[in-house]
Design goal:
Blueprint (H helix, E strand, L loop, with lengths): L6 H7 L1 H24 L13 H15 L3 H15 L6 H15 L5 H12 L6
């Protein structure tokens, strides 16, 4: 699915379609991941894990435009809460958390993403 937000598709479909797709693949995964990391049951799906590449593509294309969105703040808060938790964690949650961390730290991702994650943590997850 993430192939549809590549520059070739954007050139064909226009800027409005680009914005719609980036929002879908930026906001959607953030919300889904937060839910998945905080749930205590229903781990029978891997749908969240499959969205990491779509999210990476959306971030690479338009992070500056969406860096202050509350969904990102909530994602980092949910991720940090999950990592700090001493409770039982499902293997799929652990994999998702590691995939998100790897994506954020990927050198091909914008440095602004890592900077924003640090700002979010330093602000104690305050939304703007």
């Amino acid at each position: 699915m993430y192939r549809f937000i590549k520059p070739q598709h954007i050139a064909l479909e226009g800027e409005g379609e680009r914005n719609r797709l980036v929002k879908k693949y930026f906001y959607g995964p953030c919300s889904d991941w937060g839910d998945f990391l905080t749930r205590k049951e229903r781990f029978d799906t891997d749908i969240c894990i499959s969205k990491v590449h779509m999210w990476e593509s959306a971030v690479k294309l338009s992070f500056e435009q969406y860096k202050n969105e509350t969904e990102l703040v909530w994602l980092i808060e949910d991720l940090d809460t999950f990592l700090a938790s001493t409770g039982e964690k499902h293997r799929k949650q652990i994999k998702l958390a590691q995939d998100i961390i790897d994506a954020i730290n990927d050198p091909e991702m914008p440095q602004a993403l890592r900077d924003r994650v640090e700002e979010i943590r330093a602000s104690n997850y305050v939304t703007k």
